[in-house]
Fold each of these.
Amino acid sequence: MIDAAPPEHRSALTYWRQMTEWPLTAAALVFLIAYAWQVLGEPTGAPRAVAEWTMNLTWAVFVVDYIISLSLARPRWRWFYTHLFDLAVVALPVLRPLRLLRLVTLLRVLQRTAGTALRGKIITYVIGAVCLLVFVGSLAILEAERGQPGSQIESYGDALWRAIVTITTVGYGDETTVTITGRLVAVALMIGGITLISTATGTLASWIVERIRQDDEASQAATQAQFQELERKLDILIAAQQTAGDAAGNDGAQTRSPDAASTVAVHADAASH
């Protein structure tokens, strides 16, 4: 049985993650800029060395963060297999820009209620993930395929087209990857595309179901209100009928009272004679 982490370890790890959230996001942004500059600008000499050193420094930042987080985590094994993405970010440089998705999840445009907040967060996350995956994937494809024998991808436009075709699982086949690295990137884009499409589909289905439920609740509330109004009117009508009946009964009693008095007087006269 795995014991839960002591409060001091949880608080230390939480504090560390909170303190490093923005620095790591900034490091991911710096890496993305340096990587894009290296692939698109094709610098040589000192500029290329600067780009390489910048990417290596960002890699070192992620390694330090991963080691410290793992050392603070309790139990470590559970934290390890629940944070495989962090390990992938350290092992695969091309995934580091995906840390920028943390910025996407900070958007609160669609967050109005608990349900719509989560749904809006998922939608913005999916949109941000698609844009980042396409951009980073196209850079990786261009870097791997440019100048290779038999490759048809020689410009960023070709690589961007290939990334879009791959992530949407369309696969026209007009431009294909020929290198192992390029094909691995394409496989990653395919898996990412399928995952994102599934997420978007599930979110849309959830939204439709919720709208139908809201319409049903509104219709039931309107029907209930109509029944209550009808019941109120029936109560008023019954009360009016009872009031009218009581009034008629009182008038009848007053009409019968003189006749009864005269009858008693007649019997009294007869008895005296």
Note: Residues 1-96 form one domain.
Amino acid sequence: MSFCCRYLLPSLVLPSFQANAETPVEFDYRYQLYQEDDDRIRVESTYIRGQLDFNEDFSFRFQWLDDAISGASPTGEYDQDGKAVLADLTDRRRGILGALSKKFGDSEFELEFSESTEQDYLSRGIALSGSTELNQKNTKISYGFNYLDDQVSVPLRGELSKKSYDFFIGASQLIDENTVISVNLTLGYSEGYLNDQYKVIQRDEIAKVTVPVTVQVDVPVTVQVDVPVIVQIPDGFGGFIETEVITKVDTVVITKVDTVVDTVVDVPVTNQYVENRPDKRFRQVLQLEGLHYLEP
């Protein structure tokens, strides 16, 4: 049995300081360690986040992350004992994100850029989102669009691309001081290489194999044989002379003949298949939520 242990160091939140009287700056540092038993998976994550407030309506936030991953991961294959085959895993991900936010009255808009790199993966994204408060700020409408342009390094196939487009719209309504309901709709479309390049599916199957087999068959053959026959010939004096003559007689005999026939046999085999998903996917997600706070 496998047990998972997690260690999380508290965030080190540095106090806000002001670059000048008009531009307050805040940032924090976080380190997180995820460790499974037997060194199965180990992830060390470092985050640095910050925000720059130019004024009460205009701000810039950023995030930098560094993830180091090591351990072993199932490949989808099984050995002769039926145990999952594990492959050594070592990877490092670095990512950066920046976003500008601007308020216009009861509306707020944000433009976000991001980039993430791994050994075999490069992802660049841009997102535009916004929200508008109505009904004396009791109703909030949210909306946005996100685009990702990814490059995937696939063994034996080189660099393949994947593009993703997401649009979302949602609304939340304050019913009373303790109750909020919300509805959100997300439409997503992806195209390109949508597989996990390292995932393998192993299946035990029965293969039909044609095998040439030599067999003996009985073949009837017609042959002529010499058969002695006694005949009587008149001797001219009222008697007969007996004599033996040989005559040819057709007869059927059975002979053994070797012949090759094709025989189909069932052979148990273990096949491995790489993941092969369609190169286009349309996703729709509808989320309904009700939240009620209980007073003590």
Note: Confidence is low (pLDDT under 50) at residues 1-21.
Amino acid sequence: MARKPLEPPPVAALAAAPVRVPKAAQLIANSIREQIASGALSAGSPLPNETDLMAHFAVARPTAREALRILEAEGLLEIVRGAHGGARVRTPDVGAAARHCAVLLQLQGTTAAEVYEVRLMLEPTAARLAAERAPREAADILDALIAEEERAVEETTSLASLTIRFQETLVDVAGNPTLALLVRLLHDLASRQTSARIRPDLDEATRIRLRRRLIRAQRAVVAAIREGRGEDAESEWRRFLSGVRDELLGGRDSRVGLAPREPRSSTRRGVG
């Protein structure tokens, strides 16, 4: 029996999924972005002036300017106005990228408990990697930060910023840039938790006790790192983060900086 020839899809089906053609400015921005990412354009490198960009890409001035504005908004270019100005490549800001992702997670209703769940997956691993890859160098850097923390133990703002520095430095010395980016994203969310006052009932004596416990935990993990005991460093930091989670959240699963969300329904997840 002969097979029937395939029939072309109805026009209505094609119309339901239109093809989006990128704007010329976006294509130009993509081209320049790829050159920055590949290293062909390094930080500080000047871009050709608008006239040269127009000639190279065969576009009008408004299109060239829009492409530059796209890259400026992404933090990849610095544009100086004036007769002696122009566009120069900037070093991408990891912190800015993390803040954008953090806002997205907040809008999706990420809870404080979920943030700590992921932190417990990532940060203890960073402690182990630091112990395995550069134990003495990493320990020296971290010990210097702890000394600063001890001098600021009763200064809430100073110690909070130093604590974030310690945690991010711990990840930096692990030597994995991807891990560092993810942890910075989580720390941005954690700072939103702090501003949201997840546990407003904590008195000053309790806060100081928590800060001293933080420093003791940091000393324990740094000692394990210095001696190259990766598994011990990992378990020490996991134990500390678990305690902080329980102390700060107090069993609550509140949204970061927002009111508690309703439980996720199966229909929202697309499950029948």
Note: The chain has eleven helices and two strands.
